[in-house]
User: Which sequence fits this backbone?
RNA sequence: GCGGGAGUGGUGGAAUGGUAGACACGCAGGAUUUAGGUUCCUGUGCCGCAAGGCGUGUGGGUUCGAGCCCCACCUUCCGCACCA
């Protein structure tokens, strides 16, 4: 079947010809042809030597190879590719690499289920995804492909780990961790969903006390937070907000309370040190070490009650704990704390509304000014002492409040006990000795000064962000390059002995059992230190988010055996100009990558502190309003869509569906409609009878204007990610060309050739196979991707005439065709003469005339 | 509760404060066709025979003019949440 002709010399509207093979748009044949061509010519390999063009680094979040690509990939990778192709057309040297995030639990779980090696499963999936990407026409530089599960890659994870270890940023600690009882491994805080279940397995996460490796991301909390300001405008505001929220910096003070009979004072963190005189009790987290110590030093009765309470708390799930309307619980410890500012003796309780891992795991209870403390005080009968008059204005004179004003509700009563509402607002301090009369913010400053001079407190910040737990008790990950000597000392594996390769799976039971399967690989785990003593390898592997925290640097020198990346190449390409991926990585991956980038900056390897200059989050692909899933029976398969409509129609559908950030409901879009448009455009490319050398100037002027307006508008639209609008404009231009051929100057008009060539060049971003084919049919031999974006001719952008609207009282009453250079007076004169104007104004009085030549005349009337 | 978005035809969506609904899907009609499909053309916000009127979640405001800016509210989606 001859589906593709260089030159269809008989453009004809005759149906007998139209139905011929040569005039039928055979997307499958076109796709095959160009796929094979690109396989030979490798047009998207980034060749460095002597290339003086400016650079762009466009990156898609690399995929996890679980099965074939799905519709979500089809969307995200279409957008990334469109952006990459756009910058290539604009004359940039574009780096657009691809790799595989190929370590991780799904491979291991699949391996266990089927009794196979996770390697085989993973690399088979990669082969499948790779083939799909090639069919999809992604303009990747395949020569830079990387796999995080290759020793050549994970060697550098280990190198990175050692660098953090040297800097004291990788450390071991014994603490309560999130334990996934199904996957039998620990999870990072970020991997526990809000409902307390595991992001991976869905199991309810439990707490377990373990010694684990951590990265000290909290050292970078301020920088991770403050540097977000630089990204304002080029990152989605939602992602910025989520990161700020996650880091969760609170500014306030630490206050030291002496506990009677306890050697060390107990510090509490508070954002409201101004309310210190209103503290009537103290609460510690029941699962904190502090609570255990305080209980241990109390009566036998308290010890027993405490043990029972602790057990009850630990049995309750995260879901129960997070029920906001839950009644407060707690028990007295029969211990007493001394308020450092007034010497008052206040009782210490344990209650689970205080969290062990935030602040110091202890709070001062100020029931009048904190809702949680108030709820607790009302239940257990603590004094509620108002120390901020929230009715008092912060500036100016104090008001006189009469009983009538309180009665009428004009002024709310300062009575939290009766209202049940804590007084959280600003006001003036009362019942607070030296702070009386001060505003909230002044009182905070003053009380910190008093505490600091007395040595019983200080200004302090605290964060919601926790250190990053990176140990995983699983096989399919990067081994942690640390040796444990028999005396318990830690010995980093020397850099020249990296990588520490994973042992083969033969003989290993990968089934989760609470400890890493690597511990059972006797030959692998037992080693000898240089002094001849015995040691064991650390059997845990790293969180795969370590792999993805720096992979964008490895793309620059993916095959360099001597270093993770070449600083000179990093200088040339990084940071990434445009990162494209799902919002599901808004916190985890992006935060970790930002952290590691800052660490590498501090280590002197790179010169920038933010890895991603701009981020685009694509929406989701839905079906009938919901997420696709096999169980719901609404799954749309990428492969079957690709077979049915072709890569170009699919890509075009993604681009045309709407703004990239919005969800696409596959039931609402029409890949068949996209294919129809492509066929329409392709058909025109075969009908054009002029030669490539033809002089544009003689072309039909209206069509030429439309062509050049599109050239003028396209860059701005593309850079604002308004792909749908660009596609709409291409459709308009194709419709105009169709009309020009059928009922205008005909297929030989130079303007027709110019227009369809511009369509072809722009279309190459969305539908690369079709565009290449059209380019060839138009008589060119090179790739359209190298054709470059044409410049609009400024003289064609000036309109010959514009439509002016005539408004009366803001309503359109008539229209005029006028010169774009018309004067205001002239326009007003013409407007007053229009029929619509005369009819609308009637005999009413004109009170105002606004003229904005050449677009609008608006007349305001009276009566 | 805190934070971030979003509300425009039957549908997806356009619209530097200046003609609301570009473009497409769907639908209707026509041409071609033995027929279907394809292709091409025309129409398609709502009410109304028409003239005309009404229309961007609701109510206010600014303006000659508001889908767009400001205030209040409603609905909805997403993220976080006993974070001291």
Assistant:
């Amino acid at each position: 079947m001859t589906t593709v002709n260089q030159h269809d010399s008989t453009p004809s509207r005759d149906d007998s010809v139209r139905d011929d093979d040569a005039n039928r748009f055979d997307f499958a044949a076109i796709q095959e042809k160009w796929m094979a061509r690109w396989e030979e010519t490798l047009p998207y390999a980034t060749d460095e030597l002597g290339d003086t063009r400016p650079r762009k680094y466009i990156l898609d979040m690399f995929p996890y190879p679980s099965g074939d690509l799905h519709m979500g990939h089809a969307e995200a990778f279409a957008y990334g590719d469109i952006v990459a192709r756009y910058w290539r057309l604009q004359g940039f040297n574009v780096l657009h690499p691809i790799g595989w995030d190929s370590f991780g639990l799904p491979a291991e779980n699949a391996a266990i289920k089927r009794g196979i090696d996770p390697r085989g499963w993973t690399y088979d999936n990669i082969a499948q995804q790779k083939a799909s990407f090639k069919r999809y026409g992604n303009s990747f530089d395949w020569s830079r492909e990387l796999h995080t599960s290759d020793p050549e890659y994970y060697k550098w994870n280990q190198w990175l780990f050692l660098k953090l270890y040297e800097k004291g940023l990788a450390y071991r600690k014994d603490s309560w961790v999130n334990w996934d009882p199904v996957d039998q491994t620990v999870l990072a805080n970020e991997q526990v969903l809000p409902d307390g279940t595991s992001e991976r397995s869905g199991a309810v996460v439990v707490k377990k006390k373990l010694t684990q490796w951590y990265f000290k991301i909290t050292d970078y909390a301020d920088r991770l937070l403050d540097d977000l300001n630089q990204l304002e405008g080029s990152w989605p505001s939602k992602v910025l907000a989520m990161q700020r929220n996650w880091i969760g910096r609170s500014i306030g003070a630490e206050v030291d309370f002496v506990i009677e009979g306890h050697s060390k004072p107990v510090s509490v963190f508070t954002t409201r040190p101004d309310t210190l005189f209103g503290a009537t009790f103290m609460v510690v987290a029941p699962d904190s070490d502090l609570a255990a110590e305080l209980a241990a030093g109390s009566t036998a009765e308290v010890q027993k009650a405490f043990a029972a309470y602790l057990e009850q708390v630990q049995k309750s799930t995260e879901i129960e704990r997070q029920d906001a309307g839950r009644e407060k619980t707690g028990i007295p410890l029969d211990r007493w704390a001394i308020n450092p500012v007034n010497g008052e003796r206040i009782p210490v309780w344990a209650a689970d509304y205080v969290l062990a891992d935030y602040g110091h795991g202890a709070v001062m209870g100020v029931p009048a000014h904190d809702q949680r403390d108030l709820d607790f005080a009302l239940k257990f009968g603590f004094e509620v002492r108002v120390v901020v008059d929230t009715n008092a204005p912060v500036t100016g004179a104090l008001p006189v409040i009469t009983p009538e004003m309180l009665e009428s509700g004009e002024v709310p009563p300062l009575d939290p006990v009766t209202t049940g509402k804590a007084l959280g607002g600003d006001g003036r301090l009362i019942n607070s000795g030296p702070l009386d009369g001060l505003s909230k913010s002044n009182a905070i400053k003053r009380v910190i000064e008093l505490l600091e001079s007395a040595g019983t407190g200080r200004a302090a910040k605290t964060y919601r962000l926790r250190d990053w737990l990176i140990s995983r008790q699983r096989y399919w990950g990067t081994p942690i390059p640390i040796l444990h000597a028999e005396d318990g000392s830690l010995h980093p594996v020397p850099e020249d002995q990296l990588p520490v390769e994973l042992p083969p799976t033969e003989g290993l039971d990968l089934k989760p059992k609470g400890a890493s399967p690597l511990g059972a690989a006797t030959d692998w785990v037992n080693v000898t230190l240089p002094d001849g003593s015995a040691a064991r390898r650390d059997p845990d592997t790293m969180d795969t988010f370590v792999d993805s925290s720096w992979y964008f640097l490895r793309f620059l020198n993916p095959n360099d055996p001597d270093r993770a990346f070449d600083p000179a190449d990093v200088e040339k390409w990084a940071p990434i100009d445009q990162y494209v991926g799902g919002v599901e990585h808004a916190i985890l991956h992006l935060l970790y990558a930002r952290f590691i980038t800052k660490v590498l900056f501090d280590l002197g390897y790179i010169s920038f502190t933010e890895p991603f200059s701009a981020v685009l989050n694509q929406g989701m692909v839905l079906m009938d309003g919901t997420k696709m899933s096999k169980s719901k029976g609404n799954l749309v398969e990428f492969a079957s869509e690709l077979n049915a409509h072709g890569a170009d129609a699919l890509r075009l559908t993604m681009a045309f569906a709407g703004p990239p950030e919005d969800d696409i409901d596959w039931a609402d879009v029409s890949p068949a409609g996209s294919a129809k448009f492509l066929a329409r455009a392709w058909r025109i490319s075969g009908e054009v009878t002029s030669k490539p050398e033809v002089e544009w100037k003689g072309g039909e002027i209206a069509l030429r204007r439309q062509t050049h307006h599109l050239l003028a508008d396209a860059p701005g639209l593309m850079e604002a990610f308004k792909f749908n609008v660009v596609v709409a404009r291409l459709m308009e231009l194709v419709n105009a060309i169709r009309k020009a051929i059928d009922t205008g100057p005909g297929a030989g008009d130079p303007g027709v050739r110019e227009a369809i060539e511009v369509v072809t060049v722009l279309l190459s971003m969305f539908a690369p196979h079709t565009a290449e084919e059209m380019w060839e049919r138009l008589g060119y031999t090179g790739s359209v991707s190298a054709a470059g974006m044409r410049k609009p001719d400024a003289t064609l952008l000036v309109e010959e005439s514009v439509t002016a609207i005539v408004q009366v009282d803001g309503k359109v009453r008539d229209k005029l065709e006028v010169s774009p250079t018309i004067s205001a007076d002239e326009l007003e004169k013409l407007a007053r003469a229009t029929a619509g104007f005369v009819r609308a104004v009637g005999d009413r009085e004109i009170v105002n005339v606004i003229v904005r030549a050449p677009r609008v005349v608006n007349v305001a009337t009276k009566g």
